[in-house]
Specification:
107 residues; mainly beta
Length: 107
């Protein structure tokens, strides 16, 4: 486990998903469970940031960590899918991170 301030820069529940500066994770919204297909992880963070800035941050960061972009909000890595979802509440933007086993597109 990571100790000290470093932990604050990663989204809890994900191995190596950085938390964009300006976002604060809502620990109550974290969900983690194992399925026969793999882990499902959900996390939410909130901040006074622009959706475009969030998209740019993850478009720049995730490929360095081995994620391949399918589109602006969907990434794939080694059988995992990561999706970003957005909800605007007044001044604050909520970003939801959802990771789940990649479903087989050829079924």
């Amino acid at each position: 486990t990571r100790m000290g301030n470093v932990a604050d820069t990663f989204v809890t529940g994900f191995e190596d998903l950085p938390l964009m500066p300006g976002l604060v994770q809502d620990q109550k919204e974290s969900v983690l469970f194992d399925t026969p297909q793999g882990r499902i992880v959900q996390a939410s963070a909130i901040g006074d940031v622009a959706k475009d800035a969030v998209l740019s941050f993850y478009a720049a960061t995730l490929p360095q960590l081995g994620w391949e972009a399918a589109d602006q909000i969907t990434y794939y890595r080694e059988g995992e899918m990561l999706r970003l979802e957005f909800k605007d509440i007044g001044q604050a933007l909520t970003v939801r991170f959802l990771s789940e086993p990649q479903s087989d597109p050829f079924r």
